[in-house]
Specification:
- By secondary structure, the protein is an alpha/beta fold.
- It has two domains: 5-85 and 197-270, Rossmann fold (3-Layer(aba) Sandwich), CATH 3.40.50.1000; 89-194, Hypothetical Protein, Haloacid Dehalogenase-like Hydrolase, Chain: A, domain 2 (2-Layer Sandwich), CATH 3.30.1240.
- 36% of the residues lie in helices and 23% in strands.
- The protein has helices at 10-14, 23-34, 47-51, 54-57, 89-102, 122-131, 141-147, 167-173, 198-209, 227-232, 244-249, 261-270; strands spanning 5-9, 38-42, 65-68, 73-76, 82-85, 106-110, 115-117, 136-137, 155-159, 180-186, 189-194, 217-221, 235-239, 252-254.
- A six-stranded mixed sheet has the order 8-7-6-9-11-10, with helices on one face.
- Helix 2 (23-34) packs parallel to helix 12 (261-270) and helix 5 (89-102) packs antiparallel against helix 7.
- The protein is globular and about 55 Å long.
- 49% of the residues are buried.
- The mean pLDDT is 96.
C-alpha cells in the first residue's frame, strides 16, 4: 500500500455539515484497516471532545493515536496513554489572554484535560454544545492565569462575533513573539499554540511512532490550521469546501465533506 497512514481532520472534513459520518465513509475506513492501513483523526478539539465523535466515525474500538489540540497532544485511544504533549505554558498563555482582552475578544485556555473560561455566555454555550465537553468558569481569564501556579496550559482559542475580527489573530502574531504560532481555524476562530506543535508536526510524530515514512502518509483538511499537516504529508488533500489558500497548497483536492470526499479519495489512491 502506497499510503500506510491517513490522518484526517474531523469537522468540515470527515464529518458532514449535519454532524454525521456517512455509512459509506465508515465502510471505506474499515476496508482501509483490513488492507493494513492506519486511519486516525486530528482536531483542534481536546482528545476528550474528539472521543465523543469516535463512535460516529466507527473508530471507538480502534487502538489508534489521536491527535488533538491542534497537534499539541497525541494520546492512545484505548489506553489513554499520552504519547506526546507540547504546550504554551503559563507565561505565553497570559500574554495572549491579555492581547485578546485588549481587543474585547472572548477566549478560553486549555490544559490537556480541562478548559478555563471567564463565565457562561453565548460563546461558551455554543462551544460546549459543539465540543461535548464542559468548562471551568474562573472569572477574568488573565487574572486566573496570573494567579495560577500551573504551567501545563496547551493552547488558547479565541472566538469572535464578526468574521472580520479574526484579523486580530494576525495583529497579535505580528508582534513576533518567539515560540508561538497563531492562525485562524474557522470563520470566527483564531488560536495560539506552541510553534513546535501544529498538526504537521503531530502527523510527523505519529508517523515516527508507527514507523511509517512521511512519504507514506496522507492527510485531509479544510481550514488553515490544517495547512502544516497538508504540507507535511506524502499526499496532502484539501476538501472542495476548504479555503482557497489551503487548496492552493494541497497536492490534491477531494470532493466536499458532504460528498464523502475523504472516503472517495482513499478509494482512489489506496484501493
Amino acid at each position: 500500500m502506497k499510503y500506510k497512514l491517513i490522518v484526517s481532520d474531523f469537522d468540515g472534513t470527515l464529518c458532514r455539515s449535519d454532524n454525521t459520518v456517512s455509512e459509506y465513509s465508515k465502510e471505506v475506513i474499515e476496508e482501509y484497516f483490513k488492507r493494513g492501513g492506519i486511519f486516525t483523526l486530528s482536531s483542534g478539539r481536546s482528545i476528550a471532545s474528539l472521543r465523543t465523535h469516535l463512535d460516529e466515525a466507527g473508530l471507538t474500538h480502534r487502538d489508534i493515536p489521536l491527535l488533538g489540540l491542534q497537534g499539541s497532544v497525541i494520546e492512545e485511544n484505548l489506553t489513554g496513554r499520552v504519547l506526546y504533549e507540547k504546550g504554551i505554558g503559563r507565561e505565553t498563555a497570559l500574554w495572549f489572554s491579555k492581547e485578546c482582552e485588549k481587543r474585547g475578544v472572548y477566549h478560553h485556555v486549555y490544559t490537556k484535560g480541562e478548559i478555563f473560561s471567564s463565565a457562561p455566555n453565548m460563546f461558551t454555550e455554543l462551544y460546549t454544545r459543539l465540543a461535548g465537553v464542559g468548562m471551568n468558569f474562573v472569572g477574568n481569564v488573565s487574572e486566573f492565569l496570573e494567579q495560577s501556579e500551573r504551567d501545563d496550559f496547551i493552547k488558547i482559542l479565541a472566538i469572535t462575533d464578526d468574521k472580520e475580527k479574526t484579523r486580530y489573530g494576525a495583529e497579535i502574531a505580528a508582534q513576533g513573539r518567539t515560540g508561538v504560532e497563531i492562525f485562524t481555524s474557522g470563520p470566527y476562530f483564531f488560536e495560539c499554540i506552541n510553534s513546535g506543535a501544529g498538526k504537521g508536526n503531530g502527523l510527523k510524530k505519529i508517523a515516527e511512532l508507527l514507523n511509517v515514512k512521511i512519504e507514506e502518509t496522507m492527510s485531509f483538511g479544510d481550514e488553515m490550521n490544517d495547512r502544516t499537516m497538508i504540507e507535511a504529508a506524502g499526499l496532502g488533500v484539501a476538501m472542495d469546501n476548504a479555503r482557497k489558500e489551503l487548496k492552493d497548497r494541497a497536492d490534491a483536492v477531494a470532493p466536499s465533506n458532504d460528498l464523502d470526499g475523504v472516503a472517495k479519495t482513499i478509494v482512489k489512491y489506496c484501493f
